[in-house]
Structure formats: C-alpha cells, structure tokens
Amino acid sequence: MQIKEIQDEIVDEFSMFDDWMQRYEYMIELGKSLPLINEKFKTDDNIIKGCQSKVWVHAELEEDKLVFTADSDAIITKGIIAILIRAFSNQRPQDIIDADTQFIDEIGLKEHLSPTRANGLVSMIKQLKLYAIAYQTQLN
Amino acid sequence: MIDVTKIRKDFPILKREVNGKPLVYLDNAATSQTPQQVIDVIVDYYQNYNANIHRGVHALSQEATDKYEVARQKIQKHFNAKNSYEIIFTSGTTHSINIVANGFTTLLEKGDEILVSAMEHHSNIVPWQMLAERTGAVLKVIPMNLEGELKMDVYAELLSNKTKLVFCNHISNALGTINPIEIIIDKAHAVGAAVLIDGAQAAPHVKADMQKLDVDFYTASAHKMCGPTGEGMLYGKEEWLNKLPPYQGGGEMIAEVTFEKTTYADLPHKFEAGTPNICGGIAFGAALDYMNAIGFEAIAAYEHELLEYATQELLKIEGLKIYGTAKNKTSVISFKIEGLHPYDIGSILDKLGVAVRTGHHCAQPIMDFYKIPGTVRASFSFYNTMDEVDALVAAVVRAKGMLE
User: Fold this and answer.
1) Is the pTM of this model over 0.95?
2) For chain A, how many helices (H) and strands (E)?
3) Quick one: closest CA in B to A79, which residue?
4) C-alpha distances in angstroms, B146 versus A96, B122, B271, B318, B376?
5) Residue B329's domain spans which residues?
6) Which residue is catalytic, options A40, A51, A62, A140?
7) Which of B274, B292, B310 is the last residue before a domain boundary?
8) B272 and B135, same domain (yes or no)
9) Mutate which of A28, A49, A53 to test chain B, going by most B C-beta atoms within 10 A?
10) Are B344 and A119 within 8 A, CB to CB?
C-alpha cells in the first residue's frame, strides 16, 4: 500500500473514536503490544534525544524498500511511533522523502508534534526522512 | 489571610478552559500568570507614553524615563538594596547570571576555585562552566543528600582561600528546597569568596533582603512573579559592579565614545546596553506592587497550606514517590509513579486541563542523581485553590489507571 493510503486508513480508524480518552487508550494499547525494535539496536548511536522521552530508530534497506524499527521509553510516544512506523516503514525511500505528516494532525495528535522539545517525535520524523535521503542516494 | 476567590478574579487567564476542561494551572515555577493590574500597566505604556528613555527631551521620553526609574526604585525597595543603581535591569535571571560570569573572566586566575550547588538549574551551571573553561578555574560541586538538601559539612570542607566564587539557588526549581543561603553567604565571605544567589524561584515566595543577607549578587525574573517575560534584574553590590567589566557594548552604556577610546557610563547604565525592555521594567514594578499589596507573609503561609495538602493527598496514590523532601521547602512537588514515564502522565493531565511540567526541569544533574528520566512537577501559587489540588490528584489517578 502507498503511504497516503495507509495514512487515510489510520485517519479512518481514529475517526471512530468519540473522544481523546479512546484515542489515548488505543495509542497506549499500540505502545504496549508492539515489539518495535531489536534490543541490540537500542544503542546510544540510534537514540534521538528529545527533552523528555527517549526515542530509538533503526533503518535497514530490504531490496528497494526501507524498513524502520523504533522504540521509546514513554508509552504514548511509543504508540505514536507505532503509527508512524505503520505509515512509513516498508516503503521506497523516495516515497518517504515525499510524504507529509498531515495525518497526525487529522487524528488529533498534533500536540505531540509541536516543536516544544517535549518528545523526540519531531526529531524522529526528521530522522526517518534523513535515512530515506541517505538510502535514496545509495540507490541512485 | 488570602482571599483566593477575590484574587482569582484578577487573573483573566484563570477563567479559560483547556481541552474543554477548566484550566488548573500548576506550572507556576516555570512562569506565573499575570493579573489585570499588570496587564493594564503594559497596555497603558503602549497606548500613552511609549518612547525611548534616557535620551529624548520630549515629554513622552521624560515620562517613560521617570516611570522606568521609579520601577527600579520599587525593585530596590522590595529587595532592600542600599542604592537603586545596584539594581540592573536584565532580560531575566539567565541574562543576570551571564553578566556576572562574563565579568569574572578578568578577575579569576588559573587554579582558582568556584563552587556550585548540586541542585542548580542549567542556567546556573553552564555560564560557570564556560567561565571555568575561559579562565582555567576549577568548578567544584556542593553535594546534596537524598532529601534534596545541601550537605553543609561538605560545603565547609570545600571552602578554602582558593575559593573565589560560590553560586547557589535560593530555592531549587526542581525540588523546592529552600537553601540555607545565610550560612552559605557567611561561610563564603569568611574565606573571601563572592556569592551569587539565583533567586528566580525564591522571589515569588519570599522577600529577600539584600543588605541583611549581605549577598554580593542576587537575581530574579519578573515572569515568575506576576510580571512579563523577558524582564528581570541583577542585584550587585556597588563595589562588585564597579569591578566587573561591561557585558555588552552599545548605546546607553557609554559616557563618551571616540574611535580611539570609549569610557563607560556609571552604574547601572554600564550594564544596560541598548534600548531596554522599558515596558517590561515598568510592568515588573507593577507586579511587585501587586504582590506586596497581598503581602509576602500571607502568600507564603497560604502556599504552605497548599503544599501540605497536596503532599498529603498525592502520597495516598500507590507507587507515587516525591523527589525533594527537604524540611524547608516551597510549594513545588516533583513526583514520579513507579513504572510510568512522566511524559505519559503529563500528556494525559494536559488532556484533563491540568498544566504541570514534566521532564528534567532543566536540571539534569538532579535527575542523574536520583537515576530517573524526569519527574512530573506541580508548582503552586497563591491563586491556586484546594479544589485544584483535588483536581490534580484526581487527574493523576485517572492517568495512572489508563497507563497501567
């Protein structure tokens, strides 16, 4: 599936929730249930330092697609990571570079992407794109 | 006694809702809210007498200059400085500290020692580290115990005739500890060291008396005491301010300028280069008027009640631990719940309309000391209510239920 299609799917899912409570509970569930990253990749090199929660990101090229794994020490952050991974992982680098993150706003999680340095998410998205640019250069 | 219902009417922002819930503002240690009386002064300035000061001969400039200097006198009186020119207007505590740290570059030699407390905000660590790097001076740390109190016996041992400077906050922003600054100052003076006390967190809660403390430097930020952001003050003893070189060059701070040589203006203008935050200075004075009308003793007594009640109620939550349990502390509660990340709790609290700070509170060494990633910090002001304490506790319980 294309990134945009996945994003639309996520927006659809979230539109079923009536209030923030349900959205947060869903994210907490996502955060708790998903094994997101191999422990050996949770190194200091892979850490993105937000002001408060730590985020680890690892990227690997599988054929022409980029596969991301990630984790965080905060559960809500981890839930959002799960959503981002779903949207951006296993995609061609160029598509990742071109994709926008508007859907985060549409599912009512905008505050987590505000540049308050409160979490590593803004940096994480930047890092996903940087990996994509690096691997795209390799593919060229 | 505080009439909190009446006081709350002075703060327009306290009427607003956040995420559909009434705002419960418990992030006062980060910034305090602004009463209408201060907002009116800000509006009045821009509506009626906005002008540059200390230069113009026209009426508006005179008026603005007068009000700005009256504000300086209000600050002098509030902090009981001997002279009004010992009060330097700055953009806030960080700026104040940097003036002193920069100034000491010329006064320190390699091997001199500077002491800093273990519970400082980054703004009272980094400028001194930079000073140490510039001069070859050695930075030593006064340790603290698990309750978040400075180990005064170790402090006494660290002091020697090599010690040139000691800096410490009056009250810790992350833990709420009120430090025994009288003793810290006296002991430092006994070995001939100068002392800077960071009063950013203390100024909203206690009235510090510069002459009685005999402190060399003291700092405060207006926005933590019902005033505007981007405004603060540095108190410095006249003899020290005369010894320090200017921090920034520019207009206002000069006496005479030729391309060969510039002579500097007298205090306080020597440290006030460029057009200052005129409106901010005047509003700072108005904020002090506002708080003094309520009375600092009444404020401290009421905030202590809030602290006691909130501490008692929060500790009823299973797994909740409070960091900073000094006997002498102000209305700041830093806590963590076992197994839960502060960021997660803070995010849910926000959804419930409760504004707290989460994270390391710009005091990473403290978090490293306790080996935690951060805390949730609720900080209370005299306009908070017991009902708001209940709202905080209920919100924390709810967040805990969702996250576990």
Assistant:
1) no
2) 6, 3
3) B344
4) 48, 20, 39, 21, 18
5) 4-30+295-398
6) A51
7) B292
8) yes
9) A53
10) no
